[in-house]
Amino acid sequence: MSPNARRKSPNKWWWLTAFTIGQAISIGALSSLYKLKSVVTAMGATALAATTVSLYTISQSNSKYDLSQWGATLSSWAMILLVYLLLGIGQEVGWLPNFLPYSDMMYSVFATFLFSLFLAYHTKLIVGGKHSKYRMSEKDYVFGACALYVDIVNIFLMLLQLMGEERKQ
Which intervals of the chain form a coiled coil (predicted)? Predict the structure, then answer.
């Protein structure tokens, strides 16, 4: 989405509403596949992880490790994660031979770690880092909230996949 479209007042609220409704339906449907104890455990672990990562990022004063310029690196890691997922799907469906030691657990662990880094990165963009070039504008508060929300939801879904016990049908 262009910076201009996400800053216009009526547009950003319509986009946020549509996004929130879509996320609520999909996350509710996915969570209903797991036992309540698993969902609550994943929620607690997500809350702890999000709080810890956010507090660390906000309180970080060491400019040697400024996270605000990690966008390209994190995007590259996300592409690697996507390729790994597609290889796993190809193996599961039977399109590819089982040459790669694909495992849902390995995928979930790496994705949880990656989305935790994305949470730190987006938090640093919001609060501002050493480089003013890598910073969200004050007009981007809806976009910033959506970025943090997506990161936290992805951490929750990966932890739910890791720790979750599925309901028996």
Answer: none
Find where tokens 């997506």 sit: 150
The DSSP code for 61 is -
**DSSP labels, 134-169:** S---GGGHHHHHHHHHHHHHHHHHHHHHHH--BPP-
Helices (H), 60-94: 71-93
Instruction: Report the distance separating Cα 46 and Cα 44, nearest Å.
Output: 5
Tokens linked to 147: 């970025």
DSSP class per residue in 12-24: HHHHHHHHHHHHH
Structure tokens at 53: 């990562």
| pLDDT, tens digit (0-9, with 9 covering 90-100), for 42-53 | 999 999 999 999
Dihedral of the alpha carbons of 44, 107, 149, 57, in degrees to the nearest 10: 80
- Total residues belonging to the chain: 169
Model confidence pLDDT, tens digit, residues 80-108: 999 999 988 888 888 888 776 778 889 99
Which residue type sits at 12? K
Residue 67 burial class via C-beta count within 10 angstroms: exposed 0-12, middle 13-18, buried 19 and up: buried
Global pTM reads 0.86
Distance CA 130, CA 19 (A): 31
